Amino acid sequence: MKKRWLKWLRLTTLLAGAALLLSACGRADLSALNPQGAVAKEQLDLMKISISIMTLVVVVVFLIAIYVLFRFRRRPGNDGIPVQVEGNHKLEIVWTVIPLILLVILGVPTVQTVFAQAQDHSKDENAVIVKVTAHQYWWEFEYPEEGIVTAQELVVPVDSRIVIEAKTADVLHSFWIPALAGKIDTNPAGNVNRMFFDTPDKTGIFLGKCAELCGPSHALMDFKVKVVDDESYANWLAAMKAPAVLPEDPAIADAFQKKCLSCHAVGELGGPVYPNLTGIGDRETVAGILVNTDNPQYWNEGSVYENIYRWLEDPQKIKPGNAMPKVELTQEELEGISRYLADYKLNYESEELKNNDATSDKEERQ
């Protein structure tokens, strides 16, 4: 008997330890429990209500179960059957009415929030419309009202309503920004799903993910939402519409046009098949996952040049199964194109945003 209890004690201790260990996994910028926008906060409120109700039910049921186990356990001199309450109308009414009340408490705000967040805000005068197209394994962002197409980094102004029209170019994906809004599927066959979220009243960078298993590099299908001040956003729009700038070296420019612009685009040049490279030098990441920062909490640190070089050298090594083949480049072409793209910066940030970024970097290092 004692050995059996020790066995269960060890198992319980192991499971409790594993639960504590796993609860510490994850990142603050990839958690729906750390909302930064109005939509995400409303969704968190719903989670709090449902978790509170579930916790209450579990606690009450376990307390009753424990009470029954001890109160009516078999003991010497007490082998009789307890008084049966089957058919007790009062008890049946109680345990029928209470769940109904709990369902109403949960259901009313859930229905209100779901319908409110399902409204179409594409006609709002100040809303920013973004058409999102998911690819294996990258994200394309089109601003139809501005005639701009970019990739991997969704730049939006502070304190604004962003309307997302999502679809996929291949398999099923799911667009998800945990800190700003819930997820929405990007369906094939031309189906477009819509959602909206409100950006916070302060600048910041928020991580987005694909939340639907879509292939071998599903876990690497990241993007960034960059919330900037109004001046920076206006500068970014103007810079994205500016004519393309090609490499100064004629040989590198020729190689880039022949071997890269058949699929990619910079400015008004190139093709629309793969990610638009305009301004890639000042994006937060290369290929969505090679993070250009000295912050130790991120993996794959490195300069923009190093990350672009790594990607061009072997795209399949970085994102297995992605659609970009290994391009045949000489060493000079590889280095020259990597340097050109690393230096292709839009420099759209206002002085206020630069100061905010500098302050944030200093706080993270401390």
TrEMBL record:
Membrane-spanning parts: 50-70, 91-111
The keyword ATP-binding is assigned to this record: no
All copies of domain Cytochrome oxidase subunit II transmembrane region profile, residue ranges: 24-121
Catalytic function, reaction form: 4 Fe(II)-[cytochrome c] + O2 + 8 H(+)(in) = 4 Fe(III)-[cytochrome c] + 2 H2O + 4 H(+)(out)
Gene3D superfamilies according to UniProt: 1.10.287.90, Cupredoxins - blue copper proteins
Entry's localization field: Cell membrane; Membrane
EC number assigned by the record: 7.1.1.9
Ranges for domain Cytochrome c: 247-345
A Pfam family annotated for this UniProt entry: Cytochrom_C
Cofactor binding note of this UniProt entry: Binds a copper A center.
InterPro entries the record matches: CcO_II, CcO_II-like_C, Copper_CuA, Cupredoxin, CuRO_CcO_Caa3_II, Cyt_c-like_dom, Cyt_c-like_dom_sf, Cyt_c_oxidase_su2
Top-level lineage group: Bacteria
Recorded family membership: Belongs to the cytochrome c oxidase subunit 2 family.
Role description: Subunits I and II form the functional core of the enzyme complex. Electrons originating in cytochrome c are transferred via heme a and Cu(A) to the binuclear center formed by heme a3 and Cu(B).
Name of the protein: Cytochrome c oxidase subunit 2
Gene symbol of the encoding locus: txxe 115-coxB
